[in-house]
Design goal:
Elements lengths: L1 E4 L3 E2 L4 E9 L8 E8 L2 E9 H9 L8 E9 L11 E12 L5 E13 L2
Parallel strand pairs: 2-8
Antiparallel strand pairs: 1-3, 3-6, 4-5, 4-7, 7-8
């Protein structure tokens, strides 16, 4: 499960992101999460983070994480850019992945999400 509040995401406003699910493998130290966003088939955004560091900061857990249920909530403020479209809500195709240190993909979610760009 992946959810955003607010939805659609509003640039420059506090965003709460919740991720929950069940892992069937150990998540090792060195695991990374990646987010890629596409518009009309063209990649417009990419971000990679140290998954273990992020989970430690948000939930106080440390890798290796044993198989089982997980539930993580984080807050952030999506930054604006001078090139942002003004006064529009756009929909992007997004791929979110978690990749273990040995390069094994251990989770992947794909789907559309929308962002509002204020005036």
């Amino acid at each position: 499960m992946l959810s955003f509040d607010p939805n659609p995401i509003v640039i420059g406003k506090t965003l709460v992101t919740k991720v929950a699910g069940t892992s069937t493998v150990v998540i090792e130290q060195g695991a990374i999460s990646t987010v890629k966003a596409f518009s009309n088939g063209k990649q417009v955004f990419a971000k990679q983070e140290d998954f273990c560091k992020k989970i430690s900061e948000t939930n106080g857990e440390n890798c290796p994480l044993q198989p089982g249920n997980f539930n993580s909530t984080s807050t952030s403020v999506p930054p604006s850019s001078p090139n942002d479209p003004k006064g529009q809500t756009l929909t992007f195709d997004v791929i979110f992945s978690v990749i273990n240190a040995d390069k094994t993909v251990i989770g992947c979610m794909e789907g559309p999400f929308s962002m509002t760009f204020p005036q």
